[in-house]
Amino acid sequence: MPDAVATHVDDYLCTSYEMDSDNPTYITAFNPAATSKDAHHILLYGCTEPGSHQKIWNCGEMAYSNDSSKKSYETGPTCASGATIIYAWALDADKTELPKDVAFKVGVSTPIKYLVLQVHYANIDKFKAGQSDRSGLILTTSPVPLSKRAGVLLLATDGAIAPYSLEVFEVACEIKDDIVMHPFAFRTHAHKLGLVNSGYRIRGEGDDQEWTEIGRRSPQLPQMFYPIQSDVPIKQGDYVAAACTMFNYQSHPVRIGATGNDEMCNFYMMYWVDGDKILEDGFCTSSGPPQYYFGYDRNLNVDKIPENAFRIPPPPNGPAPGEPLQGDHHMTMQHKTNPRKRQNRFKYIF
């Protein structure tokens, strides 16, 4: 950020960088230069056209144009066209390096003509003290073409969770592009109610359907991209799915939304392909509970969901023994999502 000044908690501010129009750029690593004391999270988008050509603009849902007593920025979307997510960071996550011969290709012949950095500010104490902010990312790039092109698929839901209740947010999409994706890293994101997020490749039909785990992790841990332990190639006709288990210990319902008091159910899958063709649409979304569950899709056999899908994993992807989760809840769960019957079986340990 070029000396940004946030004036409200949950401000989303963006800045853009135009890519080289003559030569492609190959991004091979992301090194955060930020702290969770200031930034709730950071997203790096690729855009065909940025949401504004101002040096900094307000790219969140909340605009404060009537707040004349404080510095305000022009309001606009993150991208005016061609939005794709390249990288995400939160909770003081460490550097992410791509595998050998893998890179994000941007500029020139790609739809990514601009990189847009979006910062969600969680704290404004430094701004009240007269300081500005330069949170951001240090990118490692290569001018040499690499044989494998990287992409990101984001699975996310809408929805809400009732007071004092456990809920599972679910999303699934069929892969329709004629490509073979090789997931190599995953990232989970939720706010204070999130217990565990998991992602799956679904292949086959009916009793022969197979759910293969891509990644599973507590979103209360540093939210960097973590290596996927086994090769789970995803091809045309497969489904990808994600589930986020949350416990609302509060006396009011909580919706998916943009502020720190709302929730988010996000599962990011970073993948590579041989050649130059990646997913045309890097977003998979659902309306979430109570409008959508896996069981509403007749192509998904919920009886094949792995038994550990909704369990918090042991370290390193879950909290260390004795370490409390957000809200001081410890939980394991056995769950089969069949909303047509709504017979959920949960086992709690508090």
Automatic annotation (TrEMBL):
Catalytic reactions on record: a [peptide]-C-terminal glycine + 2 L-ascorbate + O2 = a [peptide]-C-terminal (2S)-2-hydroxyglycine + 2 monodehydro-L-ascorbate radical + H2O
GO cellular component, one term: membrane
InterPro entries per the UniProt record, alphabetical: Cu2_ascorb_mOase-like_C, Cu2_ascorb_mOase_N, Cu2_ascorb_mOase_N_sf, Cu2_monoox_C, PHM/PAL, PHM/PNGase_F_dom_sf
Lineage top rank: taxon: Eukaryota
Cofactor: how and how many bound: Binds 2 Cu(2+) ions per subunit.
Binding site for Cu(2+): 40-41, 120, 189, 191, 264
Keyword Secreted among UniProt keywords: yes
Sequence ranges assigned to domain Copper type II ascorbate-dependent monooxygenase N-terminal in this UniProt record: 7-127
A GO BP entry: peptide metabolic process
Subcellular location: Secreted
Entry keyword set: Copper, Disulfide bond, Glycoprotein, Metal-binding, Monooxygenase, Oxidoreductase, Secreted, Signal
UniProt family annotation: Belongs to the copper type II ascorbate-dependent monooxygenase family.
PANTHER family listed in its UniProt record: PEPTIDYL-GLYCINE ALPHA-AMIDATING MONOOXYGENASE (PTHR10680:SF14)
Protein name: peptidylglycine monooxygenase
Native species: Rotaria sordida
Source species taxonomy: Eukaryota, Metazoa, Spiralia, Gnathifera, Rotifera
